[in-house]
Design brief:
2 domains; 13 helices; mainly alpha; DNA polymerase, domain 1; hpI Integrase, Chain A; 3 strands; three-stranded antiparallel beta sheet
């Protein structure tokens, strides 16, 4: 049954319509769940008039009300509030496309910028994590996923779903189309990682995934799910006595920042990271003593050369 929407339809009506739309169906399963969870929170939030957002008529919903809701969502954290408001903006844009709404009230809200995450792994912490992971068979694939993310500066999700057809052990290279940016990256495999991959090939080379769950499910080996991989990573961190603030998601940031600090040209970094715009690398440019020292040393060397 196709829901007929009108100018006086409720926000819940539009959400129901959107959840059956082609736009929503094209989203990945994990993204759909994220949207559904955020929409459930949003629709249950109370407006200035005491009504739940879901029961509010579209023609009665204004930017002032949107700001009031956003302030409540901030209690769940800045990132969460911004995620919910972004998804609600998608909902209202859908209503606009259907000519049942003329202005997106989420555009005018006073958003708080997401706080930049600055946590970095030290080389010793990386080695300790990998050493702990590779010391136990039950953690072997987890260790490899994190190892590849750090080695190549890639996202954990792409490494979790890495398949053998993307790796050429003979040529010692990896070729990947990133899931987020759809960028193609072609990266070498270091001797250390090559050693691990050859061992992994002997154990799991008969099936598709490079680092699958070590025990088969329903007769086949499957990749770790996005929702449970952090549990294994936390167990390894705890066994290695590593700080809880460290996350495997920080491995990409750590790898890219290390390249920046090493003075690698940004054009070359883009070939590794998959970024299309140099400005996208700004969050990875961390102000450090070593970086500042190197810059000042180069400046001084240039001055001495000019004077002579």
């Amino acid at each position: 049954m196709i829901l007929k929407l009108k100018l006086n339809s409720t926000v819940s009506d539009v959400v129901e319509y959107y959840l059956t739309s082609k736009s929503f169906c094209r989203l990945k399963g994990s993204t759909q769940k994220e949207y559904e969870g955020s929409l459930k929170v949003a629709l249950g939030t109370h407006t200035l008039l005491g009504k739940k957002l879901g029961d509010t008529r579209l023609n009665k919903f204004k930017t002032k009300c949107a700001n009031h809701l956003y302030e409540q969502w901030l209690d769940r954290g800045v990132s969460r509030a911004n995620k919910i408001s972004t998804i609600m903006s998608i909902i209202f844009n859908k209503a606009i496309s259907l000519d049942i709404m003329y202005h997106n009230p989420m555009i005018g809200i006073d958003r708080v910028p997401n706080p930049p995450r600055k946590v970095m792994w030290t080389p010793d912490q990386v080695n300790l994590f990998l050493g702990t992971a590779y010391s136990e068979w039950k953690w072997r694939s987890i260790g490899l996923i994190v190892h590849m993310a750090y080695e190549w500066g890639q996202r954990l999700g792409d490494m979790r779903l890495m398949t053998w057809d993307k790796i050429d052990l003979d040529k010692q290279r990896m070729d990947l189309t990133q899931s987020k940016r759809n960028a193609d990256v072609h990266l070498p495999i270091s001797d250390e990682l090559m050693h691990i991959l050859k061992q992994q090939d002997k154990s799991f080379g008969f099936q598709s995934f490079v680092a699958p769950q070590i025990n088969p499910s329903d007769g086949s080996y499957k990749p770790y799910r996005k929702g449970n991989i952090s549990t294994y990573i936390n167990s390894i961190k705890q066994a290695a006595d590593l700080p809880a603030e460290l996350t495997a998601m920080d491995m990409r940031r750590t790898a890219i920042t290390e390249m920046v600090e090493a003075g690698v040209d940004v054009t070359q970094i883009k070939q590794v990271s998959g970024h299309k715009n140099i400005r996208s690398l700004d969050p990875y440019i961390k102000h450090t003593f070593s970086g500042a020292s190197s810059a000042l040393a180069q400046r001084q060397a240039h001055k001495v050369k000019e004077e002579t």
